[in-house]
Specification:
Number of strands: 31
Structural class: mainly beta
CATH class of the largest domain: Mainly Beta
Shape: globular
Number of helices: 4
Distance between the termini: 43 Å
Organism: Mesorhizobium shangrilense
InterPro entries: Cu-oxidase-like_N, Cu-oxidase_2nd, Cu-oxidase_C, Cu-oxidase_fam, Cu_oxidase_CS, Cu_oxidase_Cu_BS, Cupredoxin
Mean pLDDT: 91
Helix content: under 10%
Protein name: Multicopper oxidase family protein
Oligomer: single chain
CATH topology of the largest domain: Immunoglobulin-like
Radius of gyration: 21 Å
Number of domains: 3
CATH architecture of the largest domain: Sandwich
Keywords: Metal-binding, Oxidoreductase
Low-confidence stretches: 1-26, 345-354
Length: 472
């Protein structure tokens, strides 16, 4: 099935002490407070209708939290919703008790109650935060925010910009469409929406100056939409993926492929002409390309005559290097979904008695086991690793759908895809797998606890594409 076809079909129908890097600032504490509550947003701009949403501190997206690498953060989260919630600090290597999975790592935050998250982030980079309770609905109603961890030494750029991207399924009058958790979404591409926002609105343009160097942080906080961004007339250089620096490189075919939960940092030298405009286009889905925004150059002389001559490579983070010669091999196999080439236990296939995902049934499985929902106590680990061991993890996608697989508590070195080495020394916490892909990754199990590994298409996770592994 074409990308256009499946999108249209889906749219219609234990306490741990983590080793922290040495830092002169470890005695400092960066304290923040965040309140989660219902609110309003104008997702189509100032002249558009108001949309009832759920917010962090009254904002969609939530406030951008800028912290410092190696500095202790203490963040108090107050729940002003009428249901339980948590906060997951996506991509941060932190103690298991701070990971935000209800039942598995912490009690849920009940309505009217608060929870204090405390951790010292070892890595600089672009991360984000979101709920891990009733994830499909809470993310779909707007709960997401960026978490930027600043390097010890500032990176040499003229401006540091963030685009937090969210995808919304809106009905008439700007209201969020009902139907969260439909069987069609659960068993196919997930809840892909019809409106995409940048930092909570639909911006017509982004002001830029000729000759300046931008660090642009892209974060996809969508439920299911995959994006492929092209910057007309420009050559962005990828310098980090999922917060982790990589070998600087231009993306394949000039398109930045950004799945739900992924982040990509790029450096762009603005070499366009003063006064001109250049489109930023998302053309991932066949026949459904659109202009995300436009780079609008000020009509003034260039900031500098020659391109910025500082290096674009970012300083490395203190990631432990896997010992592949002594690695323990583990494998997970993704199964299920419509046209999945197999049946889940107790669930009819495409021509069976029931559609996968109907009436809350499982639509997906990992190694034949479906874990549904958001995580809970007593989840049996798929595998167990000794602390300090290297895990060589093979992920096989036997389904007909794309899956961004997210690991909690770690960042993985992505080694190969379908037998071919992955270039540019890429580390990721969210690995996008195409249908029938096989990806090999490795990480050092240096962070004890029970950790989730799941698809970050929220419908897929809730319908069974989730597992747990243990580090002892």
């Amino acid at each position: 099935m074409s990308r256009r076809g499946f999108v249209l079909a889906a749219a219609d129908i234990a306490a741990a002490t983590f080793v922290r890097p040495a830092s002169s600032r470890t005695s400092a504490v960066n304290e923040r407070r965040i309140k989660i509550a219902p609110g309003q947003a104008q997702l189509s701009g100032p002249a558009g209708p108001h949309t009832p949403v759920w917010t962090y501190d009254g904002k969609v997206p939530g406030p951008t939290l800028r912290l410092r690498q190696g500095e202790l953060a203490r963040i108090t989260v107050e729940n002003g919703l009428d249901e339980d919630t948590t906060v997951h600090w996506h991509g941060i290597r932190l103690p298991n008790t701070m990971d935000g999975v209800p039942g598995l790592t912490q009690p849920p935050i009940r309505p009217g109650e608060s929870f204090v998250y405390e951790f010292t982030p070892p890595d600089a980079g672009t991360f984000w935060y979101h709920p891990h309770a009733n994830s499909l609905v809470q993310l779909g109603r707007g709960l997401a925010g960026a978490l930027i961890l600043e390097e010890v030494e500032p990176v040499a750029v003229d401006r540091d910009l963030l685009w937090l991207l969210q995808d919304w399924r809106l009905a008439a009058g700007g209201q969020i469409a009902p139907g969260f958790g439909s069987a069609m979404d659960a068993a196919m591409s997930g809840r892909v929406g019809n409106v995409v926002t940048v930092n909570g609105t639909r911006p017509a343009y982004q002001n830029v100056k000729a000759g300046e160097r931008l660090r642009l942080r892209l974060a996809n906080a969508s439920l299911a939409r995959i994006m492929a961004l092209r910057f007309e007339g420009h050559r962005p250089v990828v310098v980090a993926i999922d917060g982790q620096p990589c070998d600087p490189h231009e993306p394949e075919e000039g398109r930045l492929l950004l799945a739900p939960a992924m982040r990509i940092d790029v450096i762009i030298d603005m070499q366009g002409d003063p006064g001109k405009r250049y489109a930023v286009i998302d053309d991932y889905y066949d026949g459904l390309s659109y202009t995300l925004t436009t780079l609008a150059y000020d009509n003034v002389p260039p900031l500098r005559a020659q391109p910025f001559d500082a290096p674009v490579r970012l300083p490395g983070n203190p990631l432990p290097e896997p010992d592949l010669a002594r690695a323990e091999r583990q494998e997970i196999v993704l199964q299920g979904g419509m046209m999945g080439g197999g049946k889940l236990k107790g669930v009819g296939g495409m021509m069976g008695m029931a559609m996968p995902g109907m009436n809350g049934t499982a639509a997906w499985a990992i190694n034949g086991i479906s874990m549904t929902g958001d995580g809970h106590s007593g989840m049996t680990p798929q595998f167990t690793l000794k602390r300090g061991a290297t895990c060589l993890l093979t992920m096989r996608n036997e389904t007909a759908w794309w899956h961004p697989m997210h690991i909690h508590g770690f960042s993985m070195s992505v080694l190969s895809r379908n037998g071919s080495p992955v270039p540019n020394r890429t580390w990721q916490d969210t690995v996008l797998m195409a249908p029938k892909d096989t990806v090999e990754c490795a990480f050092v199990a240096d962070n004890p606890g029970d950790w989730m590994l799941h698809c970050h298409v929220a419908d897929h996770q809730m319908a069974g594409l989730m597992t747990v592994f243990r580090v002892t």
